[in-house]
Design brief:
The complex is a heterodimer of chains A (262) and B (354). With 262 residues, chain A is α/β, with parallel strands linked by helices. Chain A folds into 2 domains: 144 residues, P-loop containing nucleotide triphosphate hydrolases (Rossmann fold), CATH 3.40.50; 79 residues, no CATH class. Chain A has a 6-stranded mixed beta sheet, sandwiched between helices. In chain A, helix 3 runs parallel beside helix 6 and helix 7 packs parallel to helix 8. Chain A is globular, with a radius of gyration of 19 Å. Chain A starts with 5 loop residues before the first strand and ends with a helix. In chain A, 40% of the residues are buried. Chain B is an all-alpha fold and 354 residues long. Chain B has one domain: Orthogonal Bundle (ABC transporter involved in vitamin B12 uptake, BtuC). Chain B has 16 helices and 2 strands. In chain B, strands 1-2 form a two-stranded antiparallel ribbon. In chain B, helix 2 packs parallel to helix 9, helix 2 crosses helix 14 and helix 13 packs across helix 14. Chain B is globular and about 65 Å long. Classes of the chains: A alpha/beta (262), B mainly alpha (354). Chains A and B meet through helix 2, helix 3, helix 4 and helix 5 of A and helix 9, helix 10 and helix 11 of B.
């Protein structure tokens, strides 16, 4: 068996007396799409924040492709190959679509600041290549027609896609999506699902996503972890999750009642 | 696109030549007092540009500018003063021997002033840049005062509160505006580079910037250090313009004057900053009238010093209330805009500001 892309070993996060996540152990295989679900306040985004280095876990270890990344700074973790999107979209408001994406390549810039000030060839070449690659990337996510527009002026769905494109530009091997389908109607979420599956194949990614839309999660994820109040309630493939009594009680049960009421 | 880029380059060159011609005209026709004011405007422009890089483009509310300027002014002054006048001025306590016989030419001294300020920038930045917003403002304000107090008390280097006199005088418009134009070009190249975009990314959204692999601390420190470098250069020039420096010149109120220029010109606009430095500096002189005893329609008003600042305060209030983005906002003077007006070339390809 090849090495796991991401492995967390009993990670916990405490804020004062509150235990937001306790003893979570994830095992994510290369190339898979894994879902992380749970009711509001279950600690899902906290898990993302721990993996990407926004918080250092109170206890436990995180391994990315076998290397320990526990407590590393966000920018280092991004450089290693983990990228993320945000639940509440965080685009750079003063920048165009293209600039939003080009920023992600800044860390891979081979030239120094002095070379940039002097406009030396190495910097200019790097900048030109960066521009070409980012335009190509925008083409792949169908945003190349709006490259010159301010990122935040795009319609909501496209802003979500731009956030994914921006994450892709950092050349990740693991992509973390925080509620990518939030606020989308069923048709849009279906489109997003296909999009995620497509970029997974095209960019050879492993995807971990937080999502509330059950159709999306059940339709696309090969493995699902269910959190409730920070505790891992269940893990397994979609069929197992759907039949797990604890999950039905905590989470899916509520969804079924909602569905029945509609 | 190439055609357009070509014409933009030509236009930029033309503007450079035109400004040289303007400087030449100013040099030959204006009185030496008027040239002094223009030179002062150039110094303010350098200060405001460097503050705008830190405040407007990187979003760090730093108020340490007067401290870095102080470092620069003293460095350049001590390096360029003649050994004879040093002996004369340091009568409280003689200057330390290592510095007593140094007499550098002006330009190396200006560079040295910038570099030493940049070093101070790094030293202050390493602890202070872990803070943000108001906390950063208070910390940098404190550091600037610390620098000033240290300068006041290291008598054998800085001559303490007596200050330095007989600094070589320069009242050459080319030196000051040359430095200002060079500053403008360098800062412009920085903000249009990949690093400049990283600074703006940090300003727009720190969390997202860090998630995109941008090291917040490193980039903030780079921006802060560049800001300190140019503040030091401006300090050096200030010394050459008024030929004396003393610690009271670099009180924190001075920083606010620069802040006023940046806010009025537009945080995040270099063009706006240059324009507002010129306007504010000239207004400062013109408005001296209101501090004289006035007689308006038989109503005698005694001269009040500080009336100028009242006018600037009202101006600042009005700007903040009604025109918050300042003169230019985050926009820049842009050849595309001009060329579109005259329908030269086609637009739509990768626009880069001139």
């Amino acid at each position: 068996m090849s090495e796991l892309t991401l492995r967390t070993e009993k990670i916990s996060m405490e804020f004062g007396g509150l235990r937001a996540v306790s003893d979570l152990s994830l095992e994510i295989e290369p190339g898979s799409i894994v879902g992380l679900i749970g009711p509001n306040g279950a600690g899902k985004t906290t898990v993302f924040n721990m993996i990407t280095g926004v918080y250092a876990p109170t206890s436990g270890q995180i391994y990315f492709e076998g290397g320990d990344i526990t407590g590393m700074k966000s920018d280092r973790i991004t450089a290693l190959g983990i990228a993320r999107t945000f639940q509440n979209i965080r685009l750079f408001d003063s920048m165009t679509v293209l600039e939003n994406v080009m920023i992600s390549r800044h860390v891979r810039m081979p030239a120094t600041l002095l070379e940039a000030i002097g406009g030396l060839p190495r910097y200019r070449r790097a900048r030109e290549r960066n521009y070409q690659e980012c335009m190509e990337l925008l083409g792949k996510v169908q945003l190349d027609d709006v490259w010159d527009e301010p990122g935040t002026s795009l319609p909501y769905g496209k802003q979500r896609r731009l956030e994914i494109a921006r994450a892709l530009a950092t050349e990740p091997r693991l992509l973390l999506l925080d509620e990518p389908a939030a606020g989308m109607n069923p048709a849009e979420s279906l489109e997003l699902m296909n999009f995620v599956a497509r970029i997974r194949d095209e960019f050879k990614l492993t995807v971990l996503m937080i999502e509330h839309h059950m159709e999306v999660v059940m339709g696309i994820c090969e493995k699902i972890y269910v959190l409730d109040y920070g505790v891992t309630l269940a893990k397994g493939n979609p069929a197992e999750i759907q039949n797990d009594p604890a999950v039905i009680e905590a989470y899916l049960g509520a969804v079924e009642i909602d569905a029945a009421n509609q | 696109m190439d055609k357009r880029k070509n014409s933009k380059n030509k236009l930029t060159l033309l503007v450079l030549l035109a400004s040289c011609a303007l400087l030449y005209l100013a040099d030959s026709y204006l009185s030496s007092f008027q040239i002094r004011i223009l030179n002062l405007a150039a110094i303010y422009a350098i200060l405001a540009l460097s503050m705008n890089l830190v405040l407007g483009f990187t979003g760090m509310f730093s108020l340490g500018h007067s401290g870095f300027m102080c470092v620069g002014a003293y460095t350049a002054a001590i390096l360029t003063m003649s050994p004879a006048s040093k002996e004369l001025i340091y009568y409280m306590e003689p200057i330390i021997p290592a510095l007593a016989n140094i007499e550098w030419p002006i330009f190396p001294a200006i560079i040295a002033a910038g570099l030493l300020s940049a070093l101070f920038g790094v030293l202050v930045g390493i602890p202070a840049l872990r803070l943000r917003d108001d906390y950063l403002a208070i910390a940098t304000l404190g550091f600037a005062e610390i620098i000033r107090i240290v300068v006041t008390n290291t008598v054998s280097i800085t001559n303490g509160s007596l200050g330095l006199k007989n600094i070589p005088s320069i009242n050459n418009i080319w030196v000051y505006w040359g430095c200002a134009i060079l500053t403008l070009i360098v800062i412009k190249r920085v903000i249009n580079s990949s690093w400049g975009y990283a600074f703006r990314a940090i300003r727009d959204n720190e969390i997202a910037a860090e998630a995109m692999g941008i090291s917040l601390f490193k980039h903030k420190l780079i921006s802060f250090t560049i800001g300190a470098f140019f503040a030091g250069v401006a300090g050096a020039l200030m010394g050459f313009l008024i030929t004396s420096v003393d610690p009271t010149m670099f009180r924190f109120l001075f920083t606010f004057q620069i802040l006023l220029i940046v806010v009025l010109g537009g945080m995040g606009s270099l063009t706006g900053t240059v324009i507002s430095s010129l306007v504010i500096t000239i207004m400062m002189e013109v408005l001296r009238v209101v501090e004289q005893p006035l007689n308006i329609l038989g109503l005698a008003i005694p001269g009040l010093s500080g009336m100028r600042m009242v006018i600037f305060s009202i101006l600042l209030l009005l700007v903040i209330l009604y025109y918050r983005q300042g003169l230019m906002g985050t926009r820049e003077f842009n050849w595309d805009w001009v060329l579109d007006r005259f329908k030269v070339g086609k637009s739509g390809e990768r626009g880069e500001t001139a």
